[in-house]
Design the sequence.
């Protein structure tokens, strides 16, 4: 069955430090991969997506993610974290089931300390 | 362009009550879906629709009904609320083309007491 694993429930980084959020997926076909961010009390905002081609994708707010097929991973990175990046981050895989369905990971809560 | 609008933002229900969560989009998207978000579980699909007049069940449909009489609206009905339905509910819409992604509403926080 399709699944998405985000191993880190919480991550705390200092402002200005680099960030990497991990995501592993299980899906037999070529995956459509997404990262969403949710600020407190808000909906989900799309950060970036991967379908094919260049395995390093750029998103909004200075985020990037790298698709590694051999590791079934799609890790999110940012070189320098800002206090406003504190939020919950969800990795998701899109599958051709239930219409077009997104299967979400459990999320990683990012805390930024000054 | 309002995107996906959900109402209400907050709701408290008593066990056994019924209610409808509203969702409307103004992007002419064919695909619409309802997810529930629970701590440590990410978002799970409740029901979805691939066009007006067409709905189907997702992963966790029990206790919920939907209808899609227009392209714009996709209400979610709780038939007899239970404490296990305490959650945050998100409506999402899409063109059906992955490259365009999904647009999410801001959510409805529901508490059943």
Sequence:
């Amino acid at each position: 069955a399709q699944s998405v694993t985000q191993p880190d429930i919480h991550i705390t980084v200092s402002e200005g430090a680099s960030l990497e959020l991990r995501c592993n997926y299980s899906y037999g076909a070529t995956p459509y991969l997404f990262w969403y961010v949710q600020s407190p009390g808000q909906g989900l905002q799309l950060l970036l997506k991967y379908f094919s081609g260049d395995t390093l994708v750029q998103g909004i707010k200075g985020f990037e993610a790298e698709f590694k097929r051999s590791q079934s991973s799609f890790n999110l990175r940012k070189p320098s974290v800002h206090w406003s990046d504190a939020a919950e981050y969800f990795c998701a895989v899109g599958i051709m089931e239930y219409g077009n369905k997104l299967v979400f990971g459990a999320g990683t809560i990012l805390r930024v300390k000054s | 362009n309002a995107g996906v609008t959900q109402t209400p933002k907050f709701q408290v229900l008593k066990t056994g009550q019924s209610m409808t969560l509203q969702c409307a989009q103004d992007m002419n998207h064919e695909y619409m879906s309802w997810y529930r978000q629970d701590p440590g579980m990410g978002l799970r699909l409740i029901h979805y629709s691939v066009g007006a007049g067409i709905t189907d069940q997702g992963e966790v449909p029990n206790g919920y009904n939907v209808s899609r009489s227009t392209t714009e609206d996709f209400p979610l009905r709780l038939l007899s609320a239970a404490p296990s339905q305490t959650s945050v509910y998100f409506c999402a819409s899409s063109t059906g083309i992955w490259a365009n992604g999904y647009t999410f509403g801001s959510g409805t926080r529901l508490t059943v007491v």
In short: Chain A has a mean pLDDT of 92.
